[in-house]
Amino acid sequence: MTTRPDTSPSARFPAGRLAFPHRDLTGIGRLARHEILFLLAEAQQWVEFSRQASKHADLLAGLTVINAFFENSTRTLLSFEIAGKRLGADVVNMHAATSSVKKGETLIDTAITLNAMRADAIVIRHASSGATQLIADKVDCPVLNAGDGQHEHPTQALLDALALRAALGGVEDFTGLAVTICGDVLHSRVARSNLLCLQALGATVRLCAPPALMPAGIEAMGAEVFHDFDAALAGADVVMMLRLQQERMSGQFIPSPREYHHLYGLTRKRLALAAPQALVMHPGPMNRGVEIDSDVADMLERSIITRQVEMGVAIRMACLDVLTRGRRGVEGWA
Ligand code: NCD
C-alpha cells in the first residue's frame, strides 16, 4: 500500500504561507535562506515517496500544470512532467517547436493564451533571461522558472543542494564546504542559481572558466574567481562541472574542444587535486571527453550525477505542491 506523505509544514518553519510567501519561483535570488531550507525539507518526503513501488498522490488532482518549454530539455521537462503526474495533476507539455511561437506569436500573447486556459501552474523554459518574470507578470497562476537564458534555473540549484545534502549524510548547513564550479560560467544559469543557493546555505563558491567564459564582475556576487583549474580544485570538497553552451555562443569562445579539455576538463588526475573524497556533480547533459571524462562521471563512490537527477523529481514535486497550496485552499495558505 502506498503511504500518504505528511505534507504539513514542518514545525521548524513559520506556519502556513509565511514559510514561503511567494506566488512564483523565478529565481533563488528572491529567496531567503529559510525559504530555501523549507523547500528542501518539503522535498525530502517526496524522495522517500518516489522510492516506493506505487507512487501516486492526489494532492494536485483536478489541477492543470502546463510545461511551456521554448528550449530543448530532457531532464528538466521530464522531471516536471513526472512530478506533476505523481501529484495527480493533469500535465500538458507545450513544445515551442510545434507551437504558434514558430508562427511569430509574442511571448506575452502566448502567456495570455495559457492564462485563458486556466492553468493552475505554468512551468517555463525560455532562451531569454527574464522571460519567466515577463510571463509571471501577465498570468494569474504560479509560474516556475525551468531555466531562463543565462539568468536562473532555481529548481536545478535546489535539487543540487538536496543531492549534496544527501551525499554529505544529511548536513543542512554547508558552512566550511568549498564548491568549485567549472565550465562555461558566462552562459550558465545553473552556475548563477547555484552560486546564490550554495552561498545562502553557507558554502564557499569558487568559479572557474577561461577568461572569455567568465562573466565580468561576478566577484561582486561573492564568488572566488579562477582561470587556472588546478588552482580552483585545490582542496575543494565538491566539483561541479558545466557544459559548454554552444547554442548561446555567437562566435568562437574556445580554441577547440580538445584544447578546452586539456585546460578545463575534469580527469581523474585533476580530481586528485581536490579534497580526498571530493564529490563530482554535473547538471547534464554531459559532453563526455570535453568538460568531464567518463571514468570520473561514472565513479561510483564520488559522482552524484544520477542522484542529482533523482532529486530533481522530488524538488519539482515540492515546488508544485507548495506553490499551489493557496489555490487548493490548504489551511494557512489560502
Ligand atoms: C542545464 C540547463 O539547461 O540550463 N541543464 C539542465 O537543466 N539539467 C545545463 C545545460 O544545458 O548545460
Written description of the protein model:
The protein is an alpha/beta fold. The chain folds into 2 domains: 156 residues, Aspartate/ornithine carbamoyltransferase (Rossmann fold, 3-Layer(aba) Sandwich), CATH 3.40.50; 151 residues, Aspartate/ornithine carbamoyltransferase (Rossmann fold, 3-Layer(aba) Sandwich). The protein contains 11 helices and 9 strands. A 5-stranded parallel beta sheet has the order 7-6-5-8-9. A 4-stranded parallel beta sheet has the order 2-1-3-4. It starts with 32 loop residues before the first helix and ends in a 10-residue tail after the last helix. The site of N-carbamoyl-L-aspartate has 11 residues, from helix 2 and helix 6.
- Counted up, domains total 2
The appropriate CATH architecture of the largest domain is 3-Layer(aba) Sandwich
What is the CATH level 1 assignment of the largest domain? Answer: Alpha Beta
Strand order of the largest sheet: 7-6-5-8-9
**What is the chains' assembly state?**
single chain
* Biggest β-sheet strands, sense, barrel: 5 strands, parallel
End-to-end separation = 31 Å
Query: How much β-strand is present in the residues?
Result: 5-15%
How many extended strands?
9
Spell out the CATH superfamily of the largest domain: Aspartate/ornithine carbamoyltransferase
> For the residues shown, what is the average pLDDT?
94
Number of alpha- plus pi-helical segments:
11
SSE sequence, one letter per element: HEHEHEHEHEHEEHEHHEHH
CATH topology of the largest domain: Rossmann fold
Helix proportion range = 25-40%
Low-pLDDT parts are: none
**Coarse structural class:** alpha/beta
